[in-house]
Amino acid sequence: MASIWEYANPRKFMGTSAALLPWVTAIAALCLLGGLVWGFFFTPNDFRQGSTVKIIYIHVPSAIMAVNAWFMMLVCSLIWFIRRHHVSALAAKAAAPVGMVFTLIALFTGAVWGQPMWGTWWEWDPRLTSFLILFLFYLGYIALWEAIENPDQAADLTAVLCLVGSVFAILSRYALVFWNQGLHQGTTVSTVGVGVEENEGVSSVFLYPMLTCLTGFVFLFITLVLYRTRTEIRARRLKALIAQEQMA
Amino acid sequence: MMGLLKRDLALAIRAGGGFGLSLAFFLIFTALVPFGIGPETGRLSEIAAGLLWLGALLACLLSLDRIFQLDWEDGSLDLLATSPLPLEALAAIKALAHWLTTGLPLVVAAPILGLILNLPGPAFVPLVLSLLAGTPALSAIGTFGAALTVGIKRGGLLLSLLVLPLYVPTLLFGAMAATRGAQGLDPTPTLALTLGITLGCVALLPFAAAGALRINLR
């Protein structure tokens, strides 16, 4: 029976990911294009927010993926720790900049939306602040990868940082709730509403294009991580080849 | 273990630069604040508690790279690692020594510096208590950060980048306890949360620090 651990073999991973890449790229492009066009041109304006509501098609999916990218790094770090699969460590390394950019997109689109709606670019709200902190965690993680020469040592130390960082990120997230009352709305995506009345969740008019965009962002993330992991594996092979040549 | 603690304390006090430096930084930081935001005593007393916490945190950060760096450079860290003392205990002792030489003096200095920032009267006790409860966590987290970056040349800046986001919950609750005291509110719940974070950090982070040291010493 085929097991997921087969992909710990870089050759197997390269083969399968090469076959998968065109498909996931196509799905990502299709969903993003379809979802964004649907969202931007074929949904009504919100009766209170006007056309600014349309930024949710980028804001919400990127925010969801920013958190999930860190979670994926955590899982990869654990796999690296427990089973020492290099592909897993490299995938964690590859995902970090992607997650960081998603965090930035969420922060930026949030600021652009907040200016006309809340009257401010930035507010020290628990959700906003925890995303800023998440961004700092990504920054530190990437900086640690860059700083260490030995690849195995770098993988080990960043994995430790990822584990400890996850605990502190969650701790900060819930500590911030004590600190300041939120301005950001709560989670409403999972509670599908029927109307546009208050506290009834996202209306399905907006929800379906947004789910399409979310699917697009998930596949975009998978595409980018696959590409970057393949680059990392190739870079690792190149380094080994150069080392071999110098030995000979 | 006691021997190691004594050695670290003696080195910190006698070798110069380490022991007084963070205290001096704390003083200078506090003295610079009014230049930055103006000398009105009303405004200063409003933000004094938070500023003192921030100053103590930055002063603590300043001395973190000394925890393992010197021992790493002269090879005594390798000797300590091969000794019968487990690395977890080593990390805990190092954190304790750092707290005794940096955190504790900062706690003692904070009320005196509170005077020049016009800290409100009822805030003094909560400030000292919250610093007392929170600074051990700063030392424990810092020891973990120092263990992560011990093998990196000029890792000081990276160390700050890694450690500062980890300081968020401690700073948040600690400063909130002091500020609540300044506003005449009951600081006990936030004090308890600060203490909870400290106890969690002190109990768990030496293991993470030892893990990082093991990787670095490989």
Can you describe what's shown?
The complex is a heterodimer of chains A (248) and B (218). With 248 residues, chain A is mostly helical. Chain A is 76% helix and 0% strand. Chain A contains six helices and no strands. Chain B is mainly alpha-helical and 218 residues long. Chain B has one domain. Chain B is elongated. The two termini of chain B are 23 Å apart. The model of chain B has no long low-confidence stretch (mean pLDDT 88).
Major beta sheet summary of chain A: none
**Sheet with the most strands, sense and barrel status of chain B:** none
Oligomer: heterodimer
Separate helix tally of chain B: 10
Short description:
The complex is a heterodimer of chains A (248) and B (218). Chain A has 248 residues and is an all-alpha fold.
Could you list some keywords that capture this structure?
heterodimer; A: 248 residues; 76% helix; 0% strand; B: 218 residues; mainly alpha; elongated
What are the SSEs and their pairings?
The complex is a heterodimer of chains A (248) and B (218).
Chain A: H1 10-41, H2 56-83, H3 86-118, H4 126-147, H5 151-179, H6 204-247
Helix pairs in contact in A: 1-6, 2-3, 2-5, 2-6, 3-4, 3-5, 3-6, 4-5
Chain B: H1 2-14, H2 19-37, H3 41-62, H4 66-73, H5 76-82, H6 87-116, H7 124-148, H8 156-166, H9 168-182, H10 188-217
Helix pairs in contact in B: 1-6, 2-3, 2-6, 3-6, 3-7, 3-9, 6-7, 6-10, 7-8, 7-9, 7-10, 9-10
